[in-house]
Specification:
GO terms for molecular function: acid-thiol ligase activity. Pfam families: AMP-binding (PF00501), AMP-binding_C (PF13193). It comes from Micromonospora terminaliae. The protein is an alpha/beta fold. Among the domains are: 177 residues, Rossmann fold (3-Layer(aba) Sandwich), CATH 3.40.50; 61 residues, Luciferase, Domain 3 (Luciferase, domain 3, Roll), CATH 2.30.38; 99 residues, 2-Layer Sandwich (GMP Synthetase, Chain A, domain 3), CATH 3.30.300.30. Helix content is 31%, strand content 25%.
Length: 559
């Protein structure tokens, strides 16, 4: 069945929010071109107080694009970015797109093993990386050229000078930001030495691939979600339409979410540019740095995850920092506790609403209205130009009756084009008619508000990051003496915590602490189990499959 559903949810939209958005007619590059034309002298980027205007950003992007072109980057080539939040990240992102090439975002906290898998899969020959992690990329996959970025080069002049002082504390601060990167090219030298790319260089088309974003999807096997310029532009436009009170050229967006994550990428790299906002960049979330920045350049729009809101609001209240400039805050990636909403809104006076999405949808599909019609505890209603269906998880051709729980299907311009070089995986989630299987079981009330009640996929969400049990289990099974392993998520301080149950070979002297320590060689810190429990056996189905849900239930029962 491919019914076109009614849209009762539109009556709950904030005043001024349209049921449909206009079809994007240009590429992501046009977002920056338009912002530079409209808001050239306005601040585009703020990094510890060092600012770049929109005109300056457009010029840097043109020069970086020419530098990358000289390295052989052309239309359709993949370029790996392995960077924290910094001005160079924004420049590199748009420079790659200007050439018609494809950005591939990577987490700079990944281990060499995790990066190697993705670099081999997408085959990028050029990588732009934080100099501290350059050794993890050099010689991996098909990478031939590594361009190293020194974060200190984007700092204000006084801060750069201070980092040269021969003091232990200063040396430690410098070491946290930069490190020697032999056998690499210098990003700053390449960009400084390049003329702007010729204006008549062919521009990308809306249907061209813009981004490969790695995700486990519904299976947990990391694969690249293929997102086009149209997908990402549409989601930025949907976000703009969702908050009609925004003022183009006058907002300040805080990038506390990582730009390499789909959530941070859309809200900060594309949406913020589309409204000509000043983007304040933080390499990592740090309460003190955010509150210091709030005194210097007060935020007006903050996308984040629940733990960030709770920590910021608590610290601001304790230290007397004014956050009443934040009119709008959007929460995602994990459930938003009502207590966090109350705390945040009591401190700021602004609205905090929850949304829902996934990498395959660029990423946002649902949101609570930025209006009194919002309903805390739900993930909201479908965005403009977005349709939803609830179906039988075992037979997605059968729609659920009104009021029944079912797997959420979504359709809209933000839905991805498929998985990179994985047609079978694509066919499992993209159904005829353009419907995407989310793998989440939800309920929908008469007004279209949706509540997530279960996950078909056994994804673990910790601190706003996705952790796939299969990745953790693979790392555990590489440890000598670990015979069987199961990784699950249990409720914790940042949404969920990764907990593992393992069966050890007889006579093995390894204990939980040594197993956790060994995991750090293969997994980013947030993926390492917070707790390892040694068990005699794991529960299995009749066909021998480990029953993760039963493992989780036992761990919860045992505390």
């Amino acid at each position: 069945m491919d019914a076109t559903p009614q849209r009762p949810w539109t009556r709950s939209y904030a005043p001024g929010v349209p049921a449909e958005i206009a079809e994007p007619t240009g590429s992501l590059v046009d977002l920056l071109t338009d912002a530079a034309r409209r808001f050239g002298p306005h601040v585009a980027l703020d990094f510890y107080g060092a600012t770049t205007t929109y005109a300056g950003l457009a010029d840097q992007v043109a020069r970086a694009a020419e530098a990358l072109r000289r390295l052989g980057v052309g239309k359709g080539d993949r370029v790996a970015l392995v960077l924290p939040n910094c001005p160079q990240h924004v420049v590199a992102f748009y420079a790659v797109l200007r050439l018609g090439a494809v950005v591939v975002e990577h987490n700079p906290l990944y281990t060499a093993d995790e990066l190697a898998h993705q670099l081999t899969d997408h085959g990028a020959r050029v990588a732009v990386v934080w100099d501290k992690v350059a050794p993890l990329v050099t010689g991996r996959g098909a990478v031939e050229t590594v361009v190293a970025v020194d974060l200190t080069g984007a700092l204000p002049r006084l801060k750069r000078w201070a980092l040269r002082l021969p003091l232990p504390k200063v040396r430690a601060a410098r070491a946290a930001m930069t490190a020697p990167a032999p056998d690499t090219l210098s990003w700053s030298a390449l960009v400084a030495g390049a003329a702007p790319l010729a204006a008549d260089h062919p521009a990308p088309r809306p249907t061209d691939v813009a981004l490969l974003q790695y995700t486990g999807g519904t299976t947990g096997v990391p694969k690249g979600a293929v997102l086009t310029h149209r997908n990402l532009r549409a989601n930025a436009a949907q976000g703009r339409a969702w908050v009609p009170g925004l003022r183009d050229g006058a907002e300040t967006v805080y990038a506390v979410l990582p730009l390499f994550h789909a959530y941070g990428l859309t809200l900060c790299l594309t949406f913020a540019v589309s409204i000509g906002a000043a983007l304040v960049l933080f390499p990592r979330f740090d309460v003190d740095q955010v509150l210091d920045a709030a005194r210097r350049r007060p935020p007006t729009f903050l996308p984040a995850v629940p733990p960030i809101y709770a920590r910021l609001a608590t610290a601001a209240r304790e230290r007397g920092v004014d956050l009443t400039s934040v009119r709008y805050a959007i929460s995602g990636a994990m459930a938003l506790p009502p207590a966090t909403v109350d705390l945040w809104e009591s401190v700021t006076g602004g609205l905090l609403v929850e949304g829902y999405g996934m990498t395959e949808t660029s990423p946002i599909t649902l949101g609570n209205p930025v209006a009194p019609t919002r309903r805390p505890g739900t993930v909201g209603v479908p965005f403009p130009s977005t349709e939803v269906r609830l179906v039988d998880p075992e037979d997605p051709t059968r729609d659920r009756a009104p009021g029944e729980a079912g797997e959420l299907l979504v359709r809209g311009p933000q839905v991805f084009a498929g998985y990179w070089n994985r047609p079978d995986e694509t066919a499992r989630v993209l159904l005829p008619g353009g419907w995407l299987r989310t793998g989440d079981v939800v309920t929908m009330d008469a007004d279209g508000f949706i509540t997530v009640v279960d996950r078909i996929k056994e994804l673990i969400i910790t601190g706003g990051f996705n952790v796939y049990p299969s990745e953790v289990e693979e790392a555990l099974l590489r440890i000598p003496g670990v015979r069987e392993a199961a990784a699950v998520g249990v409720p914790g301080g940042n949404g969920e915590e990764v907990v593992a149950a393992v069966v050890l070979d007889p006579g093995v002297g390894a204990g939980p602490d040594s197993v956790r320590s060994a995991c750090r060689q293969h997994l980013a810190g947030y993926k390492v189990p917070r707790r390892v429990v040694v068990v005699e056996e794991l529960p299995r189905s009749q066909i021998g499959k480990v029953l993760r849900r039963e493992v989780r239930d036992r761990l919860l029962a045992e505390g």
